[in-house]
Every structure is written in structure tokens, then in C-alpha cells.
Amino acid sequence: MASSSNGDTKTTHKGKKVVTTIGSVAAVTMVARTILIDYCPPEVRDYLYSGLRDFLDKFSTDMTMVIEEFFGFGQNEHFTAAQTYLLACISSNLQCVKIGKNHGDTNTTMSLETSKSFTDTFKGVKMKWFLASKKTPMTRVYYNEDDSGSSSRSDQGSFELTFHRKHKDMVLKEYLPFIMNVARAVKQEEKTVKLSTVDMSRWKSVNFDHPATFDTLAIEPDVKAMVKNDLDMFLESRDFYRKIGKAWKRGYLLYGPPGTGKSSMIAAIANYLKFDVYDLELTAVQSNSELRRLLLATANRSLLVVEDIDCSIELHDRAEEGSVSNRHKVTLSGFLNFIDGLWSSCGDQRIIVFTTNHKEKLDPALLRPGRMDVHINMSYCTVSGFRLMASNYLGVSNHDAFEKIEHLIGGSLEITPAEVGEQLLRFRDPDVALGGLLQYMDLKKKHEISEDLQFMN
């Protein structure tokens, strides 16, 4: 019994010694931690942490990739893609996120909280993410991702991506490209389309809030389908364009009388693709060199629009371009060079849209394929266009007045969708609105007959 009692005493003594030792180590650790936080400069602290991490890494099978927020003088695309991807794919598992909203934006923006860990799984492999933030020794100026300006920062965020080192090739060749693709798709889906115009030889942008879509366009269904199919095929043809050695761009010519929906078609294309719109008023451009600077400043995935190209500026004949008077003007060959020459390859996924009321006035050099690939006739209002407008404006798909209205539209009366819309906007009651439209069409028909009689006389 005595021997058993001595053994218990020794065990208890050893246990107390272990607890005392653990307490002492914990106390020393807390003191050391306090000293590091309160008295050591951030640079020394980072150096010590880095050394400790390097020491522990020698015994670990994990690998950590550090993705810093800025790379060179601009934002690191991998960092912004990772932030977008993590918010989109694992946000439902997050306990804390930051939110904000800029003036003029329609959506609230979420961002990740720093010093937090996130776990993702890719092809059965666990990927551990950690978002850190540290102060930098000096304030630096970084240029924004969308070239909209710059910002001064005295701190820098970074992601630490940790995984088993045997998956290094998969992370570099599959996981990171996958993140980039998902982030690109998310950003495109959430993108606010911008409209840019030339102001003092620079692009000035505002939010593009035009409500036109292909569903609201009063044109023939087969024309809509053709345009949408052509746009879809263009978006998916990057490798094809590279294979055949052509710049990844597409040219559209919208022609027809005023009021037939050319501007609405442009807005519908922009909203369908979520491409930014650059409205180029050639009369505001002083020379070929200025035009070059403006076009080089346009972004990828954008629409360059030149409306009323037949009358917006006099594009001088190439035989006269060497004259002194034309050296400070936009010339035809200079303009063609930028839309179809070597300069046209400075960018991807560009769509160029020209509009005109008089196609016959355009120089043949502008009309050839490669410059204006698709010619779309924006015609007067058709029967199907009228029915769509009646449904959109008045919420009716049939009415007693339809037969006479459609008879006039299908006959010799030339009436534009803008004229029809103007009449339908005047009243919300279908009977009154359609009656007013019918009266307007009768007056227009009589006026056209009177003009024809005067011309014959």
C-alpha cells in the first residue's frame, strides 16, 4: 500500500510540474507576443513571422502562394479575381463581409474582411485562403484596373493560398485560370455599362441607362435573330480570328430613314453584350493623330459608335490628303487605317457601328467587308413591329383597330416606329391610343397623296 501511495505521489508531482511548465511557457509566450505587438516595428514583426514560417515550412508538406493586391504600378489581376471568385462562390459560408455602395451605382458591393480564412475545394483538393493586410513603408500611387484614375495607398492586401505541394502544377495550370474565368464572368454579369463621349480630346464617361433591349425593338423577328446569332458567334470566335490572322472585331452598318430605331438598336446591342459604348463625334476630332489617341484609349469588349457618318464630317478624298489644308483634319485613309489597318489590332472584342440615313452617299471604301461586315436595313414600321409596340405600350395583342392599321402599314404608307411610338405614348387607354394612331395615319396618307399630286403637276 505504501508503494502504491508513493507512486501516486510521484505521478501527482510530475503532473503539477508539467502544468507549471506549460503555464510558464504560456506566460513567456504572452509576454513575448505583447512585446512584439506593442514595441516591435511592423517591419521587424513581419521579419520574425517570416522566419518562423520558413522554419515551420521545412517540416510541412504544404505550399503557400502569396497573391499581393498590387503588381508593379497597377492592380494584380489574380488578386481581384480571387476576391470576386471567393465572394461569388463561397459567400454563403462566410460569417462576416464588408458592404458598400458608390454614388450612382445600382448595386451594393461586398468585399472580404481581412485576417480571415476561407476554404475552397477544387477537383477534390482543399484550397485554404487567408486574406492579410499590412502597412507599407511609404505611400504609393496605383492605377485603377479600369484606367479610370489612380489612388494613393499606404497599405496592401494579399491572399495566401495554401495547398499540398504535390498539387502545384494543377493550381497554376487549372485552378488559377478557372478562378480568372469565373471572376471574368461574374464581373461581366454585374457590370454597369458606360457611355463615353469626347470632351477636350479625352473620353468622359457616364452610366449608360438606356432601357432598349432586343425584346423592345420594333423590327422583324428574323432580323433580331440574325443580329443576336451574329453577336453570339462573334463572342465565341476568339480562337477562330487568331487562326485566320484577323483582328477580333466586327463592323455593323445601320442604315435607313430617321426614326427607324438605329440608336435603339445600338443600345440593345450594348445591353445584350454589356459592352461599354464609345460615341465618337468625328466633328470633335481635330486630326488623325488625335483620333489615334482616342481609339487607343478605348477598352476591350466595347462598341465604337459613329452616328450619321455621311454627314458628321467630310472625309476628304485620298488624292487630296497631302495638301496643307488637310493635315489637321481627319482624312478618309486615316479613318480607314484605324478601323481596318494595323491600328485595328490594338484590342480585342471590338464592335464598330456606323449609322446613316443615306447609304448611297457613303464612300465605297467604307462599305466593303472587314469594315462594315453586316449591313442592317432599319426600315419603316412593319406589321410585326406594330404588334410588338402595341403589346409593349398598351398591353394588347389584338384589337378591332388592328386590321385597318395593319392594312395601311402593309400598303404604301411609310411610317416610322418613332412616329407610331409617339402616338401610342399619348394615351394609356388602348381604344383612345389606337384611335389617335389611326387618325394620324389617315392624315399622313392624305398628305402623301397631296404631295404626289403636286409633284405630278
TrEMBL record:
Belongs to the AAA ATPase family. BCS1 subfamily. The keyword Hydrolase applies. Signal peptide: none annotated. It catalyses: ATP + H2O = ADP + phosphate + H(+). InterPro entries: AAA+_ATPase, AAA_N_dom, At3g28540-like_C, ATPase_AAA_core, ATPase_AAA_CS, Mitochondrial_chaperone_BCS1, P-loop_NTPase. Its cofactor is Mg(2+). The keyword NADP does not apply. One of its GO terms (molecular function) is ATP binding. Keywords: ATP-binding, Hydrolase, Magnesium, Nucleotide-binding. It comes from Helianthus annuus. This is Putative ATPase, AAA-type, core. It comes from the Eukaryota. Residues 248-382 form the AAA+ ATPase domain. GO terms for biological process: response to stress.
